[in-house]
Specification:
Number of domains: 2
CATH architecture of the largest domain: 2-Layer Sandwich
Radius of gyration: 25 Å
Strand order of the largest sheet: 2-3-1-5-4-9-10-11
Number of strands: 11
Number of helices: 9
Length: 379
């Protein structure tokens, strides 16, 4: 009986130490992410939103909302973390007053609260890796079919769904700008915008060539086929950042928006495609029924891409964003998705891999993104 009691006391001591360690880490995290500075900034931004003339300048209002969400993304999980650790501390004190099975159950509840706190720590650790100039911004994304024909177009459609599911899981909004259908299935190109705190910071980890290996549903002989698609990302920049776009450097093409048809089909050439002649950068938008609105959205996307393009020229890192592109095919992929003869998704940059292909295609990308961010931070 004495030995059993000693064992239970040792177990309680371990739980006590775990709670104490968590409390210490909360203090360290507070200083590391400068939570009090962020809390003051958040309060100022929220006060600004409460002003009567807040929406008089819609562009500035959107920037303020984005900045508010970025600060809240730190403050809210930190406050949840602090409360969870405080609750664990109180629960442990109550557990010590119990005996027998009630004590054991109470200690298990404390450990469950500690596990919840670890989840908040993981979220804040991830946030701390997102310190780039535009990491907190929304992001423009382009998916493009590479080698593989119809199979590659179908692969683009699969990737589009994957990123939509990932964005939904993050609580982000996806806004489709333009889709160019494949000849038989899928899409040749997809342009879309993702709106949410740190959308660019997260999704920039996905930029590159994605390789698919599977039994092709378009092959009557059921042969295994390899196809490729590229994923490009660029941050949505603020209006106060100047990017010169000369009229003579811009070609504007209009065309009829695609749709399911019927009485609401758009019968005017409202879709807009912009080509920046000196760089060859092409963007398009057909989401709005107004040609003017489509052009405005396309111009915002072009401005963002040109900003990154010129920044890369200054840094002589032309392959970083929109300079020297990797070939959308063999030997250039950042990640492989294998459906047959075995199941595996492997990132060739970080070596992170999983056999849960279905989970990844349903949007479970966070482990890949975190592994890449940690690798970049270590470098």
């Amino acid at each position: 009986m004495a030995e059993e009691k000693k064992e239970k006391l040792l177990e309680a001591e371990e739980v006590r130490q775990k709670v104490a360690d968590l409390k210490s880490r909360v203090g360290e995290m507070s200083g590391y992410i400068k939570v009090e500075e962020r809390r003051s900034k958040l309060a100022a931004l929220e006060a600004e939103q409460a002003s009567a003339d807040f929406w008089s300048n819609q562009a500035k209002a959107r920037e303020t909302i984005a900045a508010t969400n970025a600060e809240r993304a730190y403050v809210v999980p930190f406050d949840s973390l602090s409360k969870t650790v405080e609750d664990a501390e109180v629960m442990f004190e109550l557990a010590e007053a119990e005996e027998g099975e009630a004590r054991e159950a109470a200690l298990r509840d404390v450990l469950a609260e500690c596990a919840k706190a670890e989840g908040f720590f993981a979220k804040l650790r991830l946030q701390s890796l997102l310190g780039g100039k535009f990491d907190q911004c929304n992001v423009f994304v382009k998916l493009h079919a590479g080698q593989g024909g119809t199979e590659a177009c179908d692969w683009v459609a699969m990737l589009y769904r994957m990123y939509q599911r990932y964005a939904e899981g993050q609580g982000w909004k996806v806004e489709e700008y333009d889709i160019q259908p494949g000849e038989e299935a899928g899409y040749k190109d997809v342009y879309f915008r993702v709106e949410g705190p740190y959308a660019f910071g997260m999704l920039k980890a996905e930029r590159g060539i994605h390789r698919l290996v599977r039994i092709s549903p378009f092959d009557a002989n059921k042969r295994r086929q390899t196809s490729f698609a590229s994923m490009e990302t660029v941050a949505e920049i603020n209006d106060d950042i100047e990017v010169e776009i000369k009229d003579e450097d811009l070609r504007v093409d209009t065309y009829r928006s695609g749709g399911a048809g019927g009485q609401h089909v758009n019968k005017t050439d409202s879709a807009v495609r912009l080509t920046h002649l000196p760089t060859g950068i092409v963007v398009a938008c057909q989401k709005e029924r107004s040609q003017h609105m489509n052009k405005e959205k396309a111009m915002a996307m072009l401005k963002a891409q040109l900003y990154e393009y010129y920044e890369d020229q200054k840094k002589a890192e032309m392959d970083r964003f929109y300079g020297a592109k990797s070939e959308n095919g063999w030997g250039s992929q950042i990640r492989s998705y294998v459906f047959c003869p075995y199941t595996m998704v492997k990132d060739l940059r970080t070596e992170y891999e999983t056999s849960d292909v279905d989970g990844v295609m349903d949007g479970n990308l966070q482990p890949f993104i975190e592994a890449w961010l940690q690798m970049k931070a270590a470098k």
